[in-house]
Specification:
By secondary structure, the chain is α+β, with helices and mostly antiparallel strands. The protein has helices at 4-15, 24-34, 38-56, 67-80, 181-190, 214-219, 229-234, 242-249, 300-313, 321-332, 373-378, 401-405, 417-422, 480-488, 509-525, 534-547, 549-568, 594-619, 674-682, 687-690; strands spanning 157-160, 165-168, 173-175, 209-212, 253-254, 262-270, 273-281, 336-340, 347-351, 391-393, 408-414, 427-428, 432-436, 446-451, 475-479, 497-501, 504-505, 625-627, 630-635, 666-673. The strands form 5 sheets. Strands 3-2-1-4-7-6-5 form a 7-stranded mixed beta sheet.
Length: 702
């Protein structure tokens, strides 16, 4: 195959007005050269671009040949003489500067295809001749597949850099000529080919997402960071900022959260087409380091890969992972569907069964927060649900001599415990009704006022009914799963009153299924699969984050989506100006449902206690501490294999903790000495918080 230098020499001959075309042998060589890939064509064009820049800047180089002639001939030959077995060459994005003041054309026409508004360049690598490209490296191997929907040929999103290159999924690179935010919005909607099809037939397509690097933000007139105290406090640009004025002047709108790290710019729907673009500004901390570890330090192509895989497996990001988790619930359970109006015969929006509908719903007083209007206006003083994750440490006096002589404390962590609890979880869909002295029914979701202080639990285990593991002292409000567990333990329950819901359904099922598949598939990309033995699983988990940092970041984002999405179901008021009893913005969402959050956390805590009890029965071991989905056990060895129960056949015993990569199964959280754990317990600290070697974040679903 001919090199670019040989190809350029032949082109030079033609540009110098040779009287004859090359001889047949030379034409055959040119046909071979013309079959080079799109990426090599792009490299040739962009290398010439740099030569043009260098010559115009007065460097001691000869004037390069005309770029438009190169461009025309290269694309013409690639189309006319495709390589054997190769598809017709696609258009190449032209990014060269011209003497004209007009913006550079974003595409070049081919012989076989009509001109398209924006055309991808295969391969994320940028030419070495560009000064800014020296530190670039191409995205690593796996990437999200392009969108199957022909309306969105270039995938779901793009990461725009300061040089006008928009990096999409699967290595696609688009040329974006926009120099203002308004131009960027119009290019995205009209030319980029970005977006994603709806996740449910009654839902809406995902709006395209453009992620701006710091350089791109500055180029578009935005500050590199939100610097002023007022901007940082509100996390948005002031309304008198020039960019905000430009957006408004062009008859575009911003949502109520304004122009912040995640800005939505839209116009009212005309006909059936949505006109909305989401912007995420990296230098404004759009991607939180806890949810997207290391992503902001990646190259644009790799950022596009991370976000593209997340968009393909979960949802196009629409804000924080918590926001995306909540949006995913609505995308998979749309509130409306098309129904025929019998009077007019027209199709109109109607309630979609199984969804939460379009209108917000007030909770029952015990399900609300103390500052909620339902509580403040009614003067409610009857107590609240306290369904939270475990924070429990065993009393040091209950440690036996045998336990204290064991050398190790080993922490186990349950994979996405809240996600596992959401599986087949029946929740209420309608408004709560109040009942006095009801007969308990474990199949009815709701809140029950019942006295569980008579339930006896081994003091070496936490109580299943309270987050701190202490024994209840009298009547309290509990979610259905908690009361049902008391019945499972063989105790009689007699509720005093209850708030129950007549309409029920497994609202979170599709949410659980999609996130479970995303979690399992991403772990598999990191070499952790269901087929591994327990020994192989522990070894794979030990080094899975080093296999592919991009996919490890996707995994972290998926886990944060689960926790944050559940937490958003009971979002508390924010801001110093809030006054108790006022309605805060989150209450306007149909998805503000603290009762659903309570159901998930109650079931997760009960699942944990059931495993703790089974472990004690099977092995005689009792935990030292529990923090949400992490439990610490004394162990004779430094591996979970040293104390987990196995049958004679070598298979894990059902009902206890089991190792594995799926939600609800366990992995190793950390190992420390038993002396270290006892020392923390004596000081009143929770070993489960620090067993990993740092300060763990409590998974409260906040």
């Amino acid at each position: 195959m001919a090199s670019e230098e040989e190809l350029f020499a032949s082109v030079d001959a033609l540009l110098n007005e040779e009287p004859h075309l090359p001889p047949p042998a030379e034409r055959a060589r040119l046909r071979e050269a013309a079959g080079i890939t799109q990426a090599r064509l792009a490299t040739a064009l962009k290398t010439t671009t740099q030569s043009v820049k260098n010559w115009e800047n007065g460097r001691s180089e000869p004037k390069p040949p005309r770029l438009d002639a190169y461009q025309r001939l290269l694309n013409g030959w690639a189309a006319k003489y495709p390589a054997p077995g190769a598809a017709p060459a696609a258009s190449v994005a032209a990014t060269a500067p011209t003497a004209s003041t007009e913006p550079a054309a974003s595409t070049v026409e081919t012989a076989h295809a009509p001109q398209t508004p924006a055309v991808p360049v295969a391969g994320p690598a940028r030419p070495a001749a560009w000064p800014a490209a020296a530190a670039r490296r191409p995205a690593s191997r796996k990437a999200a597949q392009p969108a199957a929907d022909p309306r969105f040929p270039h995938g779901t999103l793009a990461v725009l850099d300061g040089d006008g290159c928009a990096y999409g999924v699967d290595g696609i690179v688009l040329d974006c000529p926009a120099t203002t935010v308004v131009e960027l919005v119009e290019w995205t909607l009209g030319e980029s080919g970005l977006g994603a099809a709806r996740l449910h037939r009654n839902g809406k397509d995902s709006d395209p997402l453009i992620v701006l690097t710091a350089a791109a933000a500055v180029k578009l007139g935005l500050p590199e960071r939100l610097e002023s105290h007022e901007q940082r406090r509100s996390l948005r640009l002031p309304e008198d900022h020039p960019v905000v004025k430009q957006v408004v002047k062009a008859k575009w709108r911003l949502t109520q959260r304004g122009f912040g790290p995640w800005a939505r710019i839209y116009r009212k729907i005309q006909g059936r087409e949505r006109q909305c673009v989401q912007l995420a500004i990296l230098s404004w901390d759009a991607l939180d380091e806890r949810s997207w570890p290391g992503v902001t330090q990646m190259e644009p192509a790799d950022i596009a890969r991370v976000l593209g895989v997340y968009a393909q497996r979960v949802i196009t990001p629409r804000g924080s992972t918590a926001v995306s988790g909540l949006e995913l619930m609505t995308a998979l359970r749309p509130p409306t569907r098309a129904v025929r109006d019998e009077a007019s015969g027209n199709w109109v929006p109607g309630h979609n069964p199984g969804s939460l509908g379009t209108e917000p719903m007030d909770p029952a007083p015990p399900e609300a927060t103390p500052e909620h209007p339902v509580v403040v206006d009614s003067g409610w003083s009857g107590g609240f649900l306290n369904e939270e994750a475990y924070q429990w440490v065993r009393d040091v006096s209950l440690l036996t001599d045998e336990e204290c002589t064991l050398p190790y404390a080993v922490g186990l962590d349950l994979n996405t415990a809240f996600l596992a609890a959401a599986a087949r979880l029946v929740v209420g869909l309608s408004a709560p009704d109040h009942f006095r002295a009801p007969t308990f029914n474990p199949k009815i979701p709701g809140s029950w006022l019942v006295d569980l202080s008579h339930v006896e639990v081994d003091p070496r285990l936490p109580s299943p009914f309270t987050p701190d593991g202490s024994r209840p002292t009298g009547p309290a409000w509990y979610q259905t799963h908690t009361v049902a567990y008391a019945q499972e333990l063989g105790y009689n329950v007699a509720p005093v009153e209850a708030y129950l819901r007549r309409e029920t359904g497994a609202y979170l099922d599709p949410w659980h299924d999609r996130l479970k598949n995303a979690y399992v598939d991403t772990l598999a990309d990191l070499g952790v699969t269901k087929e591994l033995t327990d020994v192989e699983f522990l070894a794979a988990m030990e080094q899975h984050k080093d296999v592919d940092p991009a996919m490890a970041a996707v995994l972290a984002a998926i886990k944060a989506t689960v926790k944050g999405g559940i937490g958003k179901l009971r979002e508390r008021p924010q801001g110093r100006k809030y006054k108790e009893g006022e309605r805060w913005p989150a209450l306007q969402r149909p998805t503000w449902r603290p009762d659903i959050r309570a159901a998930v956390i109650s079931k997760a805590r009960i699942n944990m206690h059931r495993k703790l009890r089974n472990m004690a029965t099977m092995t005689g071991l009792y935990p030292l501490a529990v923090l949400s989905d992490c439990v610490v056990y004394p162990s004779p060895g430094d591996s979970p294999l040293d104390f987990l129960p196995y049958a004679a056949s070598g298979k894990p015993q059902p009902g206890a903790f089991r190792l594995g990569p799926t939600p609800g199964l366990a992995k190793l959280e950390g190992v420390q000495s038993m002396l270290w754990a006892v020392d923390l317990m004596e000081q009143g600290y929770n070993p489960a918080r620090h067993i990993k070697g740092g300060d763990a974040v409590l998974d409260e679903g906040e």
